[in-house]
Amino acid sequence: MSAFAALLLIGALWGMTIPLTRIAVSTGHDPVGLIFWQLLIGTIALGGLTFARGRRLPLGRAYWGLFIVVALIGTLIPNSFSYRAAVHLPAGIMALVIAMVPMFAMPIALGLRLERPRLGRFVGVGLGAIAVAMIVGPETSLPAGVAAVWVAISLIAPLCYGLEGNYLAWKGTRGLDPVEVLFGASLFGLILVTPFAVTGGRFVSLTDGLGAAELAVLSSGVLHAAAYAGYVYLVGRAGSVFASQVAYLVTAFGVIWSMLLLGERYALWVWLAFGLMLAGMALVQPRPADQQKPDSPAQSA
Predict the structure, then answer these.
(1) Is 249 helix (H, G, I), strand (E, B) or coil?
(2) What are the residue ranges spanned by the domains of the chain?
(3) Radius of gyration (Cα) for the chain, nearest Å?
(4) Per-residue pLDDT tens digits for 257-267
């Protein structure tokens, strides 16, 4: 498979998880119960991939902090807010919100001195902010009765992902590759969330019948694991800069799948915001030279 075909496939798979999330929360399932299944599927899939490659996950205390931090800011906290916001927001809006990850990551990286300031990137962040304002501002952007506060809540997820990326660049991964890091984080996240998922009526049972919501939970977990594994493969084959372009496709496919699977339609303001968001992402994306800085803490960690 060519690198471009792989990029398209990964973007399509990852983008489909966005409307599936909307379906998963449609019947009132508790976010904690949904996160449990996502982490369980991820642990099994990524663990199988790790062992199939002849690798073993180190579980010494030196790795606990890495796994727990990634589990918290990479899954538990952002997904808790995303699932709650997905009840109230169209899936296409959620897809646009996820595109804010590089907009949050860039100023954090500047604060940690992981990146050099560039005018183009500041413009990109500004375009992202304008796009969000266009979504929540005009009355025609959000469906009737949807409070703009849910857009603000949904922004917690991309903020967490921006923090996660910078944390890994700052502290390093202790010699582990991305699949091993995500496997460890899924395992530790599963350990952390299980006591909460099985108490207080939060558990999502899949033995009482598989409806659309339950199938969406399972499908989303499998697609996410497959897409992430494909992303790691693409980084190794075509490089991180080329692979990072998948962010555009995740947003675009998220909107397309939401229209096809959920019948969503969007106001002109949303389409204009979509264009600004893509332009902002293009400006914020790192250039090859930026990812090879010899003085970057990420290179020496």
Answers:
(1) helix
(2) 3-288
(3) 19
(4) 999 999 998 88
